[in-house]
Amino acid sequence: MAASGKKFLPRFWKITKRVFIFLFFFQLFYILLLKWVDPPITLTQLWSVLSGDGLKRDYVNRSEISNYVKIAVITSEDQLFPDHSGFDWKSIKKAQAYNKKKPNRVRGASTISQQVAKNVFLWQGRSWFRKGLETYFTFMIELIWGKKRILEVYLNVIEMGKGVYGIEAAAQKNFKKKAKLLTRQEAAMIASCLPNPKVYIIVNKGRTSAGGPKYAWILQQMTNMQEDPDVQKILQ
C-alpha cells in the first residue's frame, strides 16, 4: 500500500505538470491567434443562447466601424484607455472604498481592456480567482494585441442589448444601418446603454431619440475626447 502510494504521487505530479504546461502554451497560442482572428464564441455569448436570450452578432473590421462609435465608448467606459496599461488604479481604489462603505451596492472600475479580457477568455462573476485570471489576460492582451485591436474586439464582443453582441448587430437592430454609417448621436445612444444594456434601451422614433442616463453627458464629452491626440492615434 505504501509502495503503491509512493509510485502514485510522482506519477500524479508528472501528469499535473504536463497538464499545466499544455494549458499555458494553449492559452498563449490562443491569445496570439486572436490578435488576427475573431473569437469563435465567448462563454457569455454561449450562456446567452442557453438562457434563451439568443445570439445576434456580426464581427466587423475596425475600418467598418464609425469613429464616432470608438470615441463614444472610450468616453463612456474608459476615458484613460489610450494612456493606461490596462488598469485604472485610481478608479479601482475609489471603487474599493465605495464598496467597503456600501457592500450592497457594488461599483466596478473595469477598463475596456479588462472587459475584453473578461468577455473573451473568462466567465461573468466576482470571485477572486476569476479576477486574478482577468488581471493576467488583461496584461497579456495589452502586451500582445495593442490598443487598436483591443478596442476592435471590444466593439465586436460586448453585449449591447438582450442577445445582441457587437456594434454591427446593435446598429442593425436599432438603426437599420451598418456600424460604419452610425452618426454621432446614434453612437452616443448605444454607448449610453453599455452599463446595463438589458435595462437601458434605445428609443428612436423619428426625430426623438433617447438612450441611457449618460446620453447627454457622453455627447458633450465626445468633443473633448475627439481632440485628444492619443485618441486620434487609436482612430487611425
Description:
There is one protein chain. The protein is mostly helical and about 240 residues long. The chain folds into two domains: about 1-35; about 35-235, Orthogonal Bundle (Penicillin binding protein transpeptidase fold). Helix content is about 60%, strand content about 5%. The protein has eleven helices and four strands, in the order H-H-E-H-H-H-H-H-E-H-H-E-E-H-H. The chain has helices at about 1-35, 45-50, 65-75, 90-100, 110-120, 130-145, 145-155, 165-175, 185-190, 215-225, 230-235, and strands spanning about 55, 165, 205, 210. The strands form two sheets. It has a two-stranded parallel ribbon. A two-stranded antiparallel sheet has the order 3-4. Helix 3 (about 65-75) runs parallel beside helix 9, helix 5 (about 110-120) crosses helix 7 and helix 9 (about 185-190) crosses helix 10. The chain starts with a helix and ends with a helix. Mean pLDDT is about 85; it is low at about 100-105.
